[in-house]
Amino acid sequence: MQLVVARIGRAHGIKGEVTVEVRTDEPELRLAPGAVLATDPAGTGPLTIASGRVHSGRLLLRFEGVGDRTAAEALRNTLLIAEIDPEELPEGEDEYYDHQLIDLDVVTEDGTEVGRITEISHLPTQDLFIVERPDGTEVMIPFVGEIVTGIDLEEQRAVIAPPPGLIDDRAEVASSRDDAEDGAEERSGDDADGAPGDES
């Protein structure tokens, strides 16, 4: 099974190094010197990592056969793809590969259906589940312990405890608020009508 582990960014310096956007929780394993990676587009690769280092918080890689800035810049936006065993699991507890999470059903803790995970978005601060709802719309759910309370690969589902507003239909929320306001106006009108009666 193939797993996208990084996307190549701009060239760095003049010796063939490139910045990379890491898309794996195990860069020390997947992006280590000597690793041979397939690419998308396929014609760019395969690429063998010659060296790697961290500079100003970003990972820089250099590939065998890429020795100058022009060659490095030609790799920009290329996806790096590792071949992994489908049965392989991440080393860390409560860690998952994207392919294990894609297509999981998402339900709330009380069993309410939310949708199905169609994509994992890896942001610098956190990962997001992109969930397709039954009506075809999408909702983004942060993959953090406070919200995603359980992953059951055998049952093929992810259980969430969403905070207010995360998955609620905004129109329904607005409608409920309007109903509450209308009720308050009706009640205040009743009180106004009742006030003279009390006085008489």
Outline of this structure?
The protein is of the alpha+beta class and 200 residues long. The chain has helices at 27-30, 69-73, 98-101, 170-199; strands at 2-12, 17-22, 36-40, 47-55, 58-63, 79-83, 105-108, 113-122, 127-132, 138-142, 148-152, 157-160.
Can you walk me through this structure?
With 200 residues, this protein is an alpha+beta fold. 22% of the residues lie in helices and 38% in strands. The chain is built from four helices and twelve strands. Strands 1-2-5-4-3-6 form a six-stranded antiparallel β-barrel. A hairpin with a 4-residue loop joins strand 8 and strand 9 (127-132). The longest helix has 30 residues, at 170-199. 18% of the residues are buried. Mean pLDDT is 80; it is low at 170-200.
Spatial shape: elongated
Strand content: 35-45%
Quickly count the helices.
4
- Could you tell me the radius of gyration in angstroms? 26 Å
**Based on helices, strands and strand pairing, what is the structural class?**
alpha+beta
Give the H and E element order: EEHEEEHEHEEEEEEH
Q: State the helicity in percent bands.
A: 10-25%
Q: How widely separated are the two ends?
A: 84 Å
Q: Main β-sheet: number of strands, strand sense, barrel status?
A: 6 strands, antiparallel, barrel
Give the averaged pLDDT, no decimals: 80
Q: Ranges with pLDDT <50 over ≥5 residues?
A: 170-200
What is the number of strand segments?
12
Major β-sheet strand ordering: 1-2-5-4-3-6
